[in-house]
Amino acid sequence: MFVITFSTGLWLSSVISLSPPYSVSLKSEIKKLIYMQVALWLLVAVQMCVAHFKLLPHDQVAMPYQWEYPYLLSIIPSLFGLLSFPRNNISYLVISMISTGLFSVAPLIYGSMEMFPMAQQLYRHGKAYRFIFGFSAVSVMYLLVVIAVQVHGWQLYYSKKLLDSWFTSTQEKKKK
Asked: Under a CB-based contact definition with an 8 Å cutoff, are residues 34 and 82 in contact?
């Protein structure tokens, strides 16, 4: 929180809390991360649709891994996050943070464990059985997992900072 102190002519110091600009910058960062998460979600959804509807042969787009199905629920925390911004709704922001762990991070952890034997086989023997446009599917999906973990991690970090900012401003309003 930014704090400006100024002195009146009577040697009294007053403190002005500037939480709204801080809140606005945090909202902006979280919105950027939510849009990145939606882009990742769209990539997974498109890959799943193309594979299931057989729009391309399986040697070009592999069938999805099991963890990708629950990861599609990761759109829910993004929606709650966006809904929390217009009126600084603390409840929606908390729901967004909790459901990010449940619907976003948990499938990514499961996915990294599910794909580990295939990554190990690729590393040790150079054999890959699933491909996405000529690239090993496990390599492409691990890249997605690494990016998604960073996006969700920063989203949770900034959401916690925003929650603290909103909670502090709410407490200050109650004291007055």
From this structure: yes
Pair 172, 40: CB distance under 8 Å: no
CA–CA dist 120, 48 (Å, integer) = 24
Say if CB 2 and CB 23 are below 8 A apart: no
pTM for this prediction: 0.81
Q: Tell the residue number behind the tokens 């997992």, with chain if given.
A: 145
Q: How many angstroms from the chain centroid is the CA of residue 98?
A: 12
Lookup result for tokens 């762990």: 101
pLDDT per residue over 121-158, tens digit each? 999 999 888 899 999 999 999 999 999 999 999 999 99
Kindly state the tokens that stand for 108: 């990514």
